[in-house]
Design brief:
Shape: elongated
Largest sheet: 5 strands, antiparallel
Keywords: Carbohydrate metabolism, Glycosidase, Hydrolase, Polysaccharide degradation
Strand content: over 45%
CATH topology: Immunoglobulin-like
Helix content: under 10%
Low-confidence stretches: 1-7
Number of helices: 0
Structural class: mainly beta
Protein name: Cellulose binding domain-containing protein
CATH class: Mainly Beta
Organism: Kutzneria chonburiensis
Pfam families: CBM_2
Radius of gyration: 14 Å
Amino acid sequence: MGYGLTYPGTTTPPPTTTTTTGPGPVGCAADYSVTSTWQGGFQAAVTVTNRGSAPIAAWTVAWTWPSGQTVTNVWNGTYTQTGTAVTVRNATWNGTVAPGASVTFGLTGNGNAVIPTLTCS
């Protein structure tokens, strides 16, 4: 899903590629999809889904990227990046996720559009 952003030198969006975590604590799962690429950068969307039977009160999605890859912006979440390790936590308004429901955050990054293996808790 695109967010209507256009960048100079935008290339044709790649096919959406997704990686999913298995249900973690309280059924948290995350799907990562690349929504756009351009020379030296990319945009992605991550959907956090509650596959459990109880509400999730707060969520965290984490992954490790290859060296040189960095997050430049995140919306609908807050992030930290230390070296290649990235952690995104819910924003104040989207931390509670009902059973069967989902929330999505987006990001832009520098580097190649690598699909990371996610953990969701």
